[in-house]
Amino acid sequence: xxxxxxxxxxxxxxxxxxxxxxxxxALGTTLRTAGPxxxxxxxxxxxxAAATMQSEGSVCSHTRRALEVGASPEEISHTLLLLxxxxxxxxxxxxxxxxxxxxxxxxxx
Length: 109
What we know:
By secondary structure, the protein is mainly α. The protein has seven helices and no strands. Helices cover 78% and strands 0% of the residues.
């Protein structure tokens, strides 16, 4: 769920089910730190998974998170371009466009 994509809905769910949202966040942190992959790589993997599911909110969220932990726009774009042969050109381009919008918004701040 992307808080930035629909902040009012995210806040409603967070208020209604704070334990669930807290547990989901804790699970994500635990999974990212449980193995040898660094945080940037884990967000790029999750970005690719979000793109395969065509989840615009998750693509946006993981693009932001990857940027926050040091991924470059080139690394993010390359991650999504790698998916062309796996999920198809149109799906990869859709994910790339969602990700580009996040990166452009972030660079304009």
